[in-house]
Amino acid sequence: MIKVSVVGAKGRMGSHVVDAVNGANDMELALTLDAGDDLTLITPDNTDVVVEFTVPSVSLGNVLALIAQGVDVVVGTTGWNDEKLAQVRQAIAEGPKPETQKVFIAPNFAISAVLADYFAAKAAKYFESAEVIELHHPTKVDAPSGTAIHTAQAIGAARKAAGLGDMPDATETDGGSRGQVIDGVHVHAVRLRGLNAHEEILLGNAGEQLTIRADSFDRGSFMPGVLLATRKLATDAPAGLTIGLDQFLDL
Amino acid sequence: MIKVSVVGAKGRMGSHVVDAVNGANDMELALTLDAGDDLTLITPDNTDVVVEFTVPSVSLGNVLALIAQGVDVVVGTTGWNDEKLAQVRQAIAEGPKPETQKVFIAPNFAISAVLADYFAAKAAKYFESAEVIELHHPTKVDAPSGTAIHTAQAIGAARKAAGLGDMPDATETDGGSRGQVIDGVHVHAVRLRGLNAHEEILLGNAGEQLTIRADSFDRGSFMPGVLLATRKLATDAPAGLTIGLDQFLDL
Amino acid sequence: MIKVSVVGAKGRMGSHVVDAVNGANDMELALTLDAGDDLTLITPDNTDVVVEFTVPSVSLGNVLALIAQGVDVVVGTTGWNDEKLAQVRQAIAEGPKPETQKVFIAPNFAISAVLADYFAAKAAKYFESAEVIELHHPTKVDAPSGTAIHTAQAIGAARKAAGLGDMPDATETDGGSRGQVIDGVHVHAVRLRGLNAHEEILLGNAGEQLTIRADSFDRGSFMPGVLLATRKLATDAPAGLTIGLDQFLDL
Amino acid sequence: MIKVSVVGAKGRMGSHVVDAVNGANDMELALTLDAGDDLTLITPDNTDVVVEFTVPSVSLGNVLALIAQGVDVVVGTTGWNDEKLAQVRQAIAEGPKPETQKVFIAPNFAISAVLADYFAAKAAKYFESAEVIELHHPTKVDAPSGTAIHTAQAIGAARKAAGLGDMPDATETDGGSRGQVIDGVHVHAVRLRGLNAHEEILLGNAGEQLTIRADSFDRGSFMPGVLLATRKLATDAPAGLTIGLDQFLDL
């Protein structure tokens, strides 16, 4: 049984993690902490893996404290940048178990979204055309989504590496209907009440189309990815800092 | 048996019409004319309905000549405007059978596209959000498609008539990913090798979505609509000029 | 302001109704009752419309009691049959306001599902082929869904009324992949973790396809329909028993 | 420039190959042969790669003859079995260039279909549920399609290898709506006028769905795959018999 503690256990995501751990046959819930609780309660004795889902302003501090405790951490909080990541790497090197400490950070725990992004990049060089449509609830403040930008960049890079030129396109398109062009890939953003987070990648050749679509219907969509990462940290994940769920998928 | 003559019989669409008429159990092919042929060969004796699929520069002249011959006409050629339509109405009034002459002109003979447009307008007032995605082959010169513009206008008009306000939307969308706004409705245009002509209308409420999609895979997609219009002219269509396939659908 | 009371207010659906009424600008929440509460607390003085979402075993009794109280009722509970409906009609006739009493019962309050069903039936006679795919979460015990059966029956009836014959089909299909045939229409049921309740109707002619899809992502999908019915009962709905949300849609 | 000869050049597929070769910047059309023509006209002097698209009854003989001529062959004809493949291998071993002879046979040249099949198998172990829907024109005699069977088998094998158990399912499903079960995977076949050849794989976890769809709109959909295989044979494909387009994709 993997002993899992949750930091941010009362939050929107953290409470889902608690439920997911309780529902997993190979895990048992250890400590559940939230704002104000003492992180030093978490030790290698009571915890194999900590799942941290809080807010960007406190997440770095939590991760550094947990490394100092010598426990492995799966981080679901967003807001990481190169500087923060460097601090994590330094803390691992200076921590109690520099050779075996594991920290995992992912911008997206939805397996379907990570796979869609990966498959689209793999497929891109075999198609003459590629476009990305992302669809979200209308209370999302920005457009397009970070995931869609990443997918477009990955497609653009794959096309460039394969020596593909510009895609064929309409020539009279003044009104903006053709969307935003990111690294040569047209990206369209739909905002529709009722939706949550969805992405569709369209790839086309003469006479054929490949469509890859990831639907995240609710926050529960992150849990299979969180459990997968937790299991990897408890078994064969490499030591050090690992970034991105694709690193843990057998692709 | 309905006797059908085809004008523009060697053209891309006209040759499909010839095949479709030959394949219809209740029709027989009368004359097949093309550029340079004498339209006065077509008479009420040999023809019940003429299907005219030529080019905008000659279509008006053809239709006027066929009205003068006293035969009913289904027109698939595009490029009509109010002035040209007025000439058709005048020709009917001054022609040999002003009380019974029938002329039918439609911008789109694909039944699926006409129904999608109609259903979207019907449904619009029951949804908080609505967006239009049209997808075409990349050699189509313009974007968005005329059909998508019409659908957006119809949705916008239905929302306005129902007293609906603006749709909820993202607030940080500088890059153009949100597409073109037509009468308050966001319209996205995809151009992808392998596609032909497709339109998808997305309608959303809290917790639910209605999607209506029309796919036209090839020119054959117009034939069921052409045959339907031809049968209507041969039976119970009203006299005079009728515009739009929705007029002949029982909706 | 429409005064709305909720019976079954602590139930899964009822609690959503309470939230939806509280969120509606033109409604105010009157009484919220649940099992064991006294229905005679609800009177025309404090309530314009009651929304009843309980369980089949008690719903008929509740509705009869509410009719006796002289308040109008929107019923979301399932499990109605001809005998029960006859009892409702009799109770209206013998109740305190036989000329003005309004009762509304609907098997499905999701507007998108009701519209999809209606549009599919409207479109059916214009297409050579039609099939229904319904998709649900895998804890739904039965397959296919009642909605899919209804849609298939409606398509079958429309085809028969239009004189259409059998659809073209494969001839070597021993293994069951072609699904269940209901009134001549093939119905396929998908059961997939992550889904809620979805239905897709495919209609095809040579070269073209019309697809109509309704997605119900969660129980909230019923609320726009519940509010719409509540508003109709408070304004221009006809007296007596009305069945089906399509009766209240302007189609 | 790759010199390409076509055997079966007047056939449905062969004529498309002729057009595709003529349209490729890096290829030139060498000989075009059809039934009755002398295959010994094709030699290493005039031809780098032969594309053979005929019928099962003559394809083996053609391939053996072309191996005897010492030219490399891309075979698009179907109907291969273990016995025939063994004859091809023997002919290579006994032919004029046993060390360098290349023969490529593929059951499906649509890149989108091959990728969809491959991606589905890769993703399968990460999802609790998986189903396959294939959709074809109604003049296809059999159901389900060979491709769908292959996809279901690949998903089933991936699940078994990962130790996944049965998928969750409805329990009351007498009528056949749940489709055909192949290696534990439900397969549904739609037959709809207007369609050509399409496959959709649905993968679901709590809260999320991954959908992979391949559309083949017409025979032209095979040409990118045929050209890709031809280029591989002219460059870095391994000697001997290679089976399946996935062998030539960088996955």
TrEMBL record, chains A, B, C, D:
The active site is at H136, K140. One of its GO terms (biological process) is lysine biosynthetic process via diaminopimelate. Its EC number is 1.17.1.8. Pfam families: DapB_C, DapB_N. It is found in: Cytoplasm. InterPro entries: DapB_C, DapB_N, DapB_N_CS, DHDPR_bac, NAD(P)-bd_dom_sf. GO terms for molecular function: 4-hydroxy-tetrahydrodipicolinate reductase; NAD binding; NADP binding; oxidoreductase activity, acting on CH or CH2 groups, NAD or NADP as acceptor. SUPFAM superfamilies: Glyceraldehyde-3-phosphate dehydrogenase-like, C-terminal domain, NAD(P)-binding Rossmann-fold domains. PROSITE patterns: DAPB (PS01298). GO terms for cellular component: cytosol. (S)-2,3,4,5-tetrahydrodipicolinate binds at H137, G146, T147. Residues 2-109 form the Dihydrodipicolinate reductase N-terminal domain. Residues 115-247 form the Dihydrodipicolinate reductase C-terminal domain. Keywords: Amino-acid biosynthesis, Cytoplasm, Diaminopimelate biosynthesis, Lysine biosynthesis, NAD, NADP, Oxidoreductase. NAD(+) binds at G8, A9, K10, G11, R12, M13, D37, G76, T77, T78, A106, P107, N108, F109. It catalyses: (S)-2,3,4,5-tetrahydrodipicolinate + NADP(+) + H2O = (2S,4S)-4-hydroxy-2,3,4,5-tetrahydrodipicolinate + NADPH + H(+); (S)-2,3,4,5-tetrahydrodipicolinate + NAD(+) + H2O = (2S,4S)-4-hydroxy-2,3,4,5-tetrahydrodipicolinate + NADH + H(+). The keyword NAD applies. Pathway: Amino-acid biosynthesis; L-lysine biosynthesis via DAP pathway; (S)-tetrahydrodipicolinate from L-aspartate: step 4/4. The keyword NADP applies. It comes from the Bacteria. Catalyzes the conversion of 4-hydroxy-tetrahydrodipicolinate (HTPA) to tetrahydrodipicolinate. Homotetramer. Belongs to the DapB family. This is 4-hydroxy-tetrahydrodipicolinate reductase. It comes from Bifidobacterium oedipodis. The gene is dapB.
